[in-house]
Design goal:
four-stranded antiparallel sheet; eight-stranded mixed sheet; alpha/beta; globular; 21 helices
Amino acid sequence: MSDQPSSSAAKRPAKRPAKPHRRPQKDPVRFLAFEALRAVDERDAYANLVLPPLLKKARAKGTFDERDAALATELVYGTLRRQGTYDAVIRACIDRPLREVDPPVLDVLALGAHQLLGTRIPTHAAVSASVELARVVLGEGRAKFVNAVLRKISKQDLDAWVEQVAPPYDDDAEEHLSVVHSHPRWIVSALWDALGGGRAGIEDLLEADNERPEVTLVARPGRSTADELLDVLGEDSGLPGRWSPYAVRLTEGGEPGAIAAVSEGRAGVQDEGSQLVAIALANAPVDGRDERWLDGCAGPGGKAAMLAGLAAQRGAALLAAEKQPHRARLVERALVGNPGPYQVIAADGLNPPWLPGSFDRVLMDVPCSGLGALRRRPEARWRRRAEDLEGFAPLQRGLLREALNAVRVGGVVGYATCSPHLAETRIVVDDVLKGRGGHAPVEAEWIDARPLMPGVPALGDGPDVQLWPHMHGTDAMYLALLRRTA
């Protein structure tokens, strides 16, 4: 017999040994980012509340350093801010409607898209890390789908994708801006109406909403000073506020909790726009006495703490009222140590326990859509609907009427809201003053708020004030000041 193999055996390829099964490796940074996005989606949580305890837990295990924490934070906030743009790109890379893709799969795809299109992470690393995450949290089958989609996304940069998925500006300006700047179309329309002007202004505003905001501290009057905070932080970590004499801006390396004044409650984290609102109300001229102040929607306590300190410097007392008991406790915590008299109560501003005409100054910072703080809560833009404003309208008008009822003749009311939407700002004030909606007109006059924010530019035609992220570096706070005349 011949020792040579048969011809059929010679043609048969050698059988390759099976690859050993490799367990997926859990990347702690990307896994944490995925956990945060799932909490935002499943529980309607806010990233700024979900992320810090996750990071704290990871640090406690010793698996995270500061670079890991910074990357996880960027992945979460960057993905949320650019979700609209990434959804449009993902939609162009799959053969089914986006709504038919399971939300956890979309979260992994969006995280991968952000790494590919919004960061400097190398393409290979972005794809491989995202696919590995998919293997851990989704399983092998769906990981293959993630791999295929991300490889399609990786073939173009962000500019090329935007050109492909966004309609031309001249064909549909609002939809173009919506896709390019990742805002729902109705929000683009509302912000554009409030801002006025042409294309440049609205693009600047939308882009500012997608930038990471500075962390700003407030030195609470009578309890600390901006100079004290700056001395502690040093030139490398702190800068003076742009407009408020009580503000200090943290640079990249600043950590609020490490500052003694913050941990002791003598200072806090507060946007400069909110500080300006409180200062303007405190400095508005009143006729007659100036002894009793009211914060009628005081939770969580930032403006109340500032007003309490300013009131104490003049021998006045603040009453801080908050409807929700748990938020009233936050107000109490913020006011502990205030140098002058104050009181915190759980009370509904629509059914107040105080007598009419009891106060010389009243702040009513009403609940709103929060469209002025999209930099800080990017997920809010995807939760809100235009019809939500109809639910806020009666509450806002009712609270302003009660504020004007609470102030004495010659006293001042500040109506404030963290929204630039006209339906939540000037229209509310006009309706209350003119008695629209079946209520009697209120006898009050406008006070020009612009001189009460000295040095702040671009405050418009007045008498009310609208602050803007792209113009002032603040949240889009609105303030109307009114003096009760009869």
